[in-house]
Amino acid sequence: MAKETDAPKEPGVSKVELTGQTETPDELAGTEATLIEHLTELRQRLIYSMLAIAVLFVVCFIFADQIFDFLLEPFKTASGGVEDVRLIFTAPQEFFFTKLKLALFGAVFLAFPILAGQIYAFVAPGLYKNERGAFLPYLVATPVFFLIGAAVMFYGVMPLALRFFLSMQAGGPDVVTIEMLPRVSEYLSLIMTLTLAFGVCFQLPVILTLLARIGIVETKQLKSWRKYAFVAVLVVAAFLTPPDPISQLGLALPMLLLYELSILSVWLVERSREKHNETQPTS
Asked: For an engineered disulfide with 159, which of 26, 77, 107, 207 has Cβ 3.0 to 4.6 Å away?
C-alpha cells in the first residue's frame, strides 16, 4: 500500500514510499481512475474478448472436421493407422453438438493470447512501472507452459493410454468379439479434459515463481514440502486423468519434475533479489 511521506515536498516532484523504493510521477502515471472509468474499461475489455471468441468460434466451426481429424492423431498412432480408427455417434444430433463444443474449445484455446492481453491491458494502469515489467514475463510464460503440457499429453501420454485401452479388446473364432468403438463426444471430452489438466498443471513453475517474486514462498519452504507435494501430485493426477496407470503416471512424473524446476526458479529469483539489494545504496 502506497503512503505519502510527511516530509515537505519539493516543487514539481512527488515521491511515494513503497517498500523502501521511491516512485516518480512518470512511474505512477495511469494508476488513478474513478470507479466508473474502471467499469467502462472492464466492459470494453470484455467486449473485445467476446468478439475474439465469437470470430474464432465461427472459424473453428467451419474447420471442425479438420480439427477433429487432427485430434484423432493419437488414436491413429495407437491403433496403427487411419484404417483401424472407428468412432460412432448414437444420437442424430450428437456429432453436431460435438462440433459446437469442439469449436468453442478451439476458439477459447486460440483466443488465449488475446484474452491474456486484455487482462494485462486492464490491470496494467493500476501497476507501478517496475510491476508492469515483472508481470510481462509471466504473461508470456503462461501460454508457453500450457502448450508444452498439451503437447506432452497429445504426443506422449494419449497414444500410450489408448494403446492400453485397445489392448483390452478380445476376439477370435470361438470367442465373443469385444471391440472398442468410442463415441465422438466421449473421445472429444477425453481430449479436452486431458488438455486442460496437463495445461493447467504445467503452470506450476509459473505460479510458484510468481509467488516467490511477491515474497510468499521461499526455496527452503519448497524443499521442506517435497513429501507433501509428492502425495498432492499423485492425488491430482488420479483425480484429473482416466483411471489407468499410464495417464496418471504421465501427468504425475512431469509434475514432480516441474516442482523441482520450480525450486530452481525460486532460488534464482531469491538470488536476483539479493544481488539487487546489495547494489542498492544504504541510507
From this structure: 77
